[in-house]
TrEMBL record:
Keywords: Methyltransferase, S-adenosyl-L-methionine, Transferase, tRNA processing. S-adenosyl-L-methionine binds at residues 82, 107, 134, 157. Its EC number is 2.1.1.33. It catalyses: guanosine(46) in tRNA + S-adenosyl-L-methionine = N(7)-methylguanosine(46) in tRNA + S-adenosyl-L-homocysteine. Pfam families: Methyltransf_4. Substrate binds at residues 161, 193, 230-233. The gene is trmB. It comes from Shewanella benthica KT99. PROSITE patterns: SAM_MT_TRMB. The keyword tRNA processing applies. This is tRNA (guanine-N(7)-)-methyltransferase. Pathway: tRNA modification; N(7)-methylguanine-tRNA biosynthesis. Catalyzes the formation of N(7)-methylguanine at position 46 (m7G46) in tRNA. InterPro entries: SAM-dependent_MTases_sf (IPR029063), tRNA_(Gua-N-7)_MeTrfase_Trmb (IPR003358), tRNA_methyltr_TrmB_bact (IPR055361). SUPFAM superfamilies: S-adenosyl-L-methionine-dependent methyltransferases (SSF53335).
Amino acid sequence: MPFFSINPARLRAKMSDVTTAEFNEEGKYLRKVRSFVLREGRLTKGQAAAMEQQWPLMGLDYSPEPIDLAQIFGREADTVLEIGFGMGASLVEMAKASPELNFIGIEVHKPGVGACLSDAAKAGVTNLRVFHHDAIEVLENSIVAGSLARVQLFFPDPWHKKRHHKRRIVQTEFAQQIRRTLKIGGVFHLATDWENYSEYMLEVLGAAEGYQNQSTTGDVVQRPEHRPLTKFEARGHRLGHGVWDIMFERID
């Protein structure tokens, strides 16, 4: 399968710094770099207004204490968590298309949070909550074990140079952090436009304890209907570029 890449500068406008974690070459968690403090960015008037008006309704202030999903959403329902939602367009689309599910997004870039809240309010979405915080801390401290039906990680930074692979978020320890949050039968869904990264993801998750690949061929899956096709991705498909979806189920 030839290597292609959708325009990374445009597609990854929603992907930058999905977490502030850093790992060593064995996948061991090293430290947290509080880069999200530096990623406040300049909000548009609409984003600023959304932060002021919608955060009390949809924002989740980080606390080291586990959150109560039933209390937050006012109901019992399967919950989907997305790490690094960028500007939030696809997350809002998913939440609107699946009102029977609860959705939580985590993003360190404040303008992206504001844009997501703005779009959610315009779309009348009520089943979405967002964190403006480090994903690793949220996973470690805020999410109850076995409480999620799906965790999504779409188009994370590939750190394509080999010497930078240790900076990739997908590592053995990270896979087990995700597994802890998933219920049995829950799914870790990843997507990337770098074939090399997809192969790396498959290697890491294929060796991870407690997971099973949902692909019948043991590699990637077709894009599921629940993941919206972005306009940049659609353009890439027309040009023959590739995107690889990977879905692993927690079995233990």
